[in-house]
Design goal:
Layout (H helix, E strand, L loop, with lengths): L1 E7 L5 H10 L5 E2 L6 E2 L2 E9 L16 E3 L7 H8 L5 E9 L4 E5 L10 E9 L4 E5 L2 E2 L7 E4 L5 E5 L5 E9 L2 H8 L3 E5 L7 H11 L2 H15 L6
Antiparallel strand pairs: 1-11, 1-14, 2-4, 3-7, 4-5, 4-6, 6-13, 7-12, 8-11, 8-13, 9-10, 9-12
């Protein structure tokens, strides 16, 4: 079984975080993967590989040296939240999807709890017209909540409201503590592992991403599909 999503009991100071964002709203940078979205999708890097605030690439599945950026001291509410996470924390970013913008369906390769890495979403500012889908199921992410999202599965977002959507996104390494937090979720969705029948669709999605990593994974899956390997 794999976990598709889970709502977690990880409280944070929503009002303080909203106020801190309002005070530092001029250093947003356009998301690097321009083929993934339409409209404006921007980021603030609070923890990144090497500690540069201009590096909004999470650079996961590597041995990157993650450090707080010069922006982190401006967000004490985020620092406080991170201190409560009893697991290794990698990239920490605010991601803003402006009104009318769309993130196209895509997959973030290998970024899943079962692969040892977990992406946590903390909705800070949102509206009822933000439509977040995982495998065509809408998941209602509300302000002040905390969610684990399996980014290795097809997902997409559209902001059809009149206000911007801002999430704090934290990438973590899975350990026993995080496993217990997910196990204690009051809302969780799971599914069976991928079978061979899923491979053509997954390969097609990887090719559309058009990155070196996605092409490499697509080749590996094509080899499995053409051989006698079993994919679970």
């Amino acid at each position: 079984m794999i976990i598709r999503y889970a709502r977690l009991s990880l409280p944070f100071d929503l009002k303080a975080m909203q106020a801190e964002i309002a005070q530092l709203g001029h250093q947003w940078q356009a998301h690097f993967n321009t083929s993934y979205y339409e409209g404006s999708w921007t980021a603030l890097a609070l923890r990144s590989p090497g500690g540069s605030h201009t590096n909004i690439t999470p650079d996961l599945m590597t041995d990157a040296d993650f450090r707080d950026t010069p922006l982190m001291p401006h967000f004490p509410s985020v620092s406080k939240l991170i201190s409560t996470l009893d697991c290794p924390v990698m990239a920490v970013r605010f991601l803003k999807l402006e009104a009318g913008a769309v993130i196209k369906q895509h997959r973030d390769n290998e970024l899943a709890f079962e692969k040892g890495e977990a992406r946590l979403h903390f909705p800070v500012i949102t509206n009822p017209q933000v439509l977040f889908y995982i495998e065509d199921e809408r998941v209602p992410l509300q302000e002040g909540e905390a969610w684990y999202i399996n980014a290795n599965l097809p997902h997409r977002v559209s902001n059809e409201g009149q206000t911007d959507r801002i999430h704090l996104v934290v990438d973590c390494t899975v350990n026993d503590w995080l496993s217990r937090v997910v196990d204690g979720s009051d809302k969780i969705s799971c599914k069976e592992e991928h079978t061979r029948d899923d491979l053509p669709r997954i390969i097609s999605e990887l090719r559309l991403q058009n990155t070196a990593a996605s092409h490499k994974l697509a080749v590996e899956l094509e080899q499995q599909l053409s051989g006698n390997h079993t994919v679970i």
